[in-house]
Amino acid sequence: MIIFQVPIGSGEILKVISGWIKELFLMRHRKNVLKKKFNFVYFSYAPDFEYLCLSIKSLIRNVHCEYAITVFIDQKAPFTSEQEQIIRRIYSDVVFYPVENFSWASISTTMAELSCFLKVAEESSEDDYLVKTDSDILFLSGDKFERIATSNLKAIGDGRHINYKYFQGGLYIIQNKVIKNCFSNIQASDMEDIAQRWNGNLGEDLAVTQRLKDKGIKPFESRLMLFPSEYKKLKYANKFVRRDFVALHFVRDKESMKEYFENFI
Fold it and tell me: Is 225 left (phi over 0), alpha (psi -120 to 50) or beta?
């Protein structure tokens, strides 16, 4: 259902309201508090180049906290030097790194991503946040990142798309010191154990969420992303939408990104 242009699933009304109450206490925008920096980490490759450019443009336009952008490039289809220059013209301080061993929903992919997370976490402040970001994400304007930046939350993600079982992998946020504590000594056997506990599910997002829980970190579930079934019902993103959500995730709908970038974002 749509209430004040905000999509709310018929079965999640109580959960949404309880989430709003929790956020009032845990995600306040407090003055005179040291704000954390956000390190946006993309995993991308040449076929997603146009989507990545749109995503970074929306980030620059709509995220007003201090941030950095790192792109790990899948070497199965790396960007050309010309494509890298185009991205640098959009955001001059972007950092590129190559990444190997990528294949969809595999332990080797999860281990490679965690290694990238650790690299970024080691190069920035322990209190700052890493934001894992897919290329098919468009960012909305709003103050939710600012509220997260002044909070003491350790890990924030959106679990609505999979019935609150784990963070959906398009966009989630983890504090650097949590990344170091939870993933520094992780082995492939740990990922295999998690997959067995989840009936063979090898997804990186599930593995990351479960590892956080195993290490005593309670993930904070919040409404971060609008999915196709939601944003296609909206005419625009009003202030209520922009308070609740930080992005649109074009899951199996990448062909719509340009239109929404021009007419919705």
Answer: beta
Q: Identify the helix (H) or strand (E) that includes residue 139.
A: strand 137-139
Query: Nearest 5 degrees, angle CA 179-CA 184-CA 188?
Result: 110
pLDDT tens, position by position, 166-200: 999 999 999 999 999 999 999 999 999 999 999 99
SS3 for 61-109, per residue?
HHCCCCEEEEEEEECCCCCCHHHHHHHHHHCCCCEEEEECCCCCCCHHH
HSE of 254, CA atoms in CB hemisphere, 13 A: 14
Task: Tell me how far CA of residue 248 lies from CA of 70, 138, 142, 261, in angstroms.
Answer: 20, 5, 13, 10
Phi and psi angles of residue 171, each rounded to the nearest 5 degrees, phi first: -160, 115
Determine whether 14 is exposed, middle or buried from the number of CB atoms within 10 Å of its CB (0-12, 13-18, 19+): exposed
> From CA 62, how far away is CA 223, in angstroms rounded?
17
Lowest-confidence pick of 17-31, 106-120, 135-149, 233-247: 17-31
* Tokens 């999979």 -> residue: 162
Q: What is the pTM of this model?
A: 0.90
The radius of gyration of the chain's CA atoms, rounded to the nearest angstrom, is 18
Do 234 and 5 meet the contact criterion of CB atoms below 8 Å apart?
yes
Q: Please state, as a whole number, how many other Cβ atoms lie within 10 Å of the Cβ of residue 19.
A: 18
The conformation of residue 124, written as its DSSP 8-state character, comes to S
